[in-house]
């Protein structure tokens, strides 16, 4: 055993502060006492810890819910530790079975490459690219070969593998489990061996795989990594986890105005969870802000701060300021400065057809539904007549709070 593993280093105030940052917003940090020892050793020796996050590029785009774990990486990066953004190009060929009740179809190498490039470009909006080590697990997984794979598989039992929740459920309900799916957690765990990881991060659904890394590191004679899991971010509806399928998400490539307005739409209660998980403000700053709100300050002030911070991160401070002004204009019934201009012919034109042709509604029937709901305005006046026909002229047409078009109808 190496000397650093047995030497006891002092737990200073700096180590305590680093632990507080590590624990911010987390679901679990296992084992916490080992992490404190690693932090103390790092501070005493000046040797940064190696922090690993593995992502399988199964889809090209990420939403701000995905950035929760990236934010934690950035906090640890700012403490001076070495973060490793691991792209699972090899493990994507297997398909992660985590949380699934059926076999995940593997991606082609071309899909993986394209998605990986987009993932890292988007992740770089949160991480500092100059201080991020990018690795691909094919680097050590492919050279393993058949012999290495068999030797790796010998280091874990089928009984332990079947303790995994999703495998257990599928087995007891008679759903198929392919043998190659057992390789996924083994390969993810082997990544930690190859990278000599001190800490691995992931979502709560990754706990089994993360603990596999600890087990395999011990099998290979390494000091085992600690494991940190982050909660899944609750979406705009304040009920379900953020997801594209629930349409309660903010994509990190969405327009600044839309991003800003969506953050402002969340509840005053949910806002504080978002501050903890998404903001780079310190916990002390957030606590002070919360105390001001409890003391009578308008909670909207705090929400505007959060919206501007998030919009600035994925766009720019200038774009965030413009988005705030755009939101103010709309809330006063004003029209944004920059709205699309559309030229249409066929006057007089029915309002339903106009909305569809101006790309303000996907269909005439949906346009009629919007009119029934009071969500359509022409030159500031709410439209209630689905039979309305507009003659030649220029109109500012609004659908909902955020869709506008200046329509020149001839």
TrEMBL record:
Its main location: cytoplasm. It is found in: Cytoplasm. It comes from the Bacteria. Catalyzes the attachment of tyrosine to tRNA(Tyr) in a two-step reaction: tyrosine is first activated by ATP to form Tyr-AMP and then transferred to the acceptor end of tRNA(Tyr). Signal peptide: none annotated. This is Tyrosine--tRNA ligase. Keywords: Aminoacyl-tRNA synthetase, ATP-binding, Cytoplasm, Ligase, Nucleotide-binding, Protein biosynthesis, RNA-binding. A motif ('KMSKS' region) lies at residues 241-245. It holds the Pfam family tRNA-synt_1b. The gene is tyrS. Homodimer. It catalyses: tRNA(Tyr) + L-tyrosine + ATP = L-tyrosyl-tRNA(Tyr) + AMP + diphosphate + H(+). ATP binds at residue 244.
